[in-house]
């Protein structure tokens, strides 16, 4: 009978890599370009696609938290896409914001 063992097998290599915030931001930005494939970007930079999806999710959560903070402190929020910075009213409706972001990305 084979028993399932939770945890790491003895002698299995354990490699932990640390990526800089700048590297993560660049990878996330590249993966969000129109027509970009997250899996292709991940393979090219040598990481697992699930890692890049995690970085993207974390970036979205960080941006949402920044907007929430901005709502309490001012009526505008800055959105950074690559080298572009978009300053919007925090009350902007989603369809307008989506059109604005698409316009900046395609420029």
From TrEMBL:
PANTHER family: TRANSPOSASE INSC FOR INSERTION ELEMENT IS2A-RELATED. Coiled coil: none annotated. This is IS2 repressor TnpA. Gene3D superfamilies: Homeodomain-like. GO terms for molecular function: sequence-specific DNA binding; transposase activity. GO terms for biological process: DNA transposition. InterPro entries: Transposase_8 (IPR002514), Trp_repressor/repl_initiator (IPR010921). Pfam families: HTH_Tnp_1 (PF01527). It comes from the Bacteria.
């Amino acid at each position: 009978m084979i028993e399932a063992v939770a945890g790491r097998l003895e002698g299995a290599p354990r490699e932990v890599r640390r990526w800089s915030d700048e590297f993560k931001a660049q990878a996330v930005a590249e993966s969000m370009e129109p027509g970009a494939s997250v899996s292709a970007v991940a393979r090219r930079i040598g990481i697992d696609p699930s890692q890049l999806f995690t970085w993207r999710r974390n970036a979205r959560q960080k941006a949402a938290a920044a907007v929430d903070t901005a709502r309490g402190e001012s009526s505008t929020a800055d959105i950074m896409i690559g080298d572009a910075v978009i300053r919007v009213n925090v009350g902007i409706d989603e369809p307008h914001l989506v059109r604005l972001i698409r316009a900046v990305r395609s420029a």
